[in-house]
Amino acid sequence: MNETTSIRPFTITEKLDWLENRYWKFGQDDTLADHLHDLYEVDDEGQMTAQPRRDPLTGETKGLMVLGGSGNGKTALLMRTLRADPVLTEFKVDKPGNTLFITVPPEATIKKLAEIILQQTGYAKVDTKLRAADAWEIARHRFGMVGINTVVIDECHHILRSGPGRDVLAAIQSLKHIMQSERGVALVIAGVPSLRDAILSEPSGETYRRFREFHLSRISPGSTAARRFGQNFLKSAEVLGVQVCEEDAVAERILFAEHGQVGRSVALGKEILRDAVTRKREVLSLEFSERVFQKSNPNFGMTPFHPGAWVAVKKELEAIGWGA
Ligand SMILES: Nc1ncnc2c1ncn2[C@@H]1O[C@H](COP(=O)(O)OP(=O)(O)OP(=O)(O)O)[C@@H](O)[C@H]1O
Ligand SMILES: [Mg+2]
Question: InterPro entries, per this entry (predicted)?
């Protein structure tokens, strides 16, 4: 699907709205789609279906861990996949769908998570005296009743936090049990890299071995992701009617300035474009890009948006240990 072929934004309001909602593809979506493909049955055309693959001997499904540092784009990627995927559709109480998306609140226990699932699947009579194991049993049953066969748990590391009154092993086991639901439920969990370590703390390793792993990293210079970041930036500029001089290497400078962290790099790229649109500038300049950067980073003398050829500026910045 090409997102930029939709109606071109014309007014400033339309342009800003268009820009804000733009999802920039760096290749992580393809990798995620590839991982998901392995979790489900395929049809005779080789197309992924919504039916999770089950081990015929155990009836169990598999899981996927999406791991990455904060701001590396896990939530944005998962939500975008749910919006765009022809097979996985988000379940809401008032809207049928086959995929339940849950965001775990910071202090949630495993019991709280089960209660959230019950509420989100329309089970109104949640009894707070219910034991965690019973709440989970009802939750797994609900999946089958309402037609959910994929569960996505974002910020999953929160339920695996240790501390008083928290049972990490039981929490790990509840994840395993989701993949042992009667009707077959594929599980996608997302969180910071410590999520993997927490699951590995189970001595038997029985939960960990049911998961594949997908790591979202920063965008490194010269990588395919970096090239695609540049293409997204240029394409967005073009749709917004802002001219960018390719020799300025603005996208490379943005990635350098934000150390390739996805969230921050996208935010700076969009802010630079927003600045040009709102001030009705038809041509993007390094000078104005630098001004945008300095508004949130006032303490740098020389910045990556310093005038001059990028290769030379970069060399100089590296020599002074810029941003290290
Ligand atoms: N591909 C993308 N295109 C456009 N914006 C993106 C993209 N990826 C991430 N973002 C934006 O970057 C910011 C950080 O991304 P996101 O919240 O998904 O990261 P995260 O890995 O879930 O972080 P956390 O662990 O803190 O929840 C968000 O504002 C999001 O909208
Ligand atoms: Mg997130």
Answer: P-loop_NTPase, TniB
Residue 180 lies in a domain: yes
- The alpha carbon of 128 and the centre of ligand 1 are apart by a number of angstroms equal to 34
User: Which residues' Cβ are closer than 6 Å to ligand 1?
Assistant: 23-24, 68, 70-76, 192, 262-263, 266
pLDDT of 164: 82
Number of neighbours of residue 234 by Cβ within 10 angstroms: 15
- Position 48 pLDDT exceeds 70: yes
Burial of 287 (0-12, 13-18, 19+ CB in 10 A): exposed
pLDDT score of 2 more than 50: no
**Pairwise CA distance, residues 73 & 192, whole Å:** 11
**Tens digits of residue pLDDT in 153-182:** 999 999 999 888 788 999 999 999 999 988
Is residue 252 located within the same domain as residue 186? no
Query: What does the pLDDT read at residue 230?
Result: 97
- Domain span at 273: 219-318
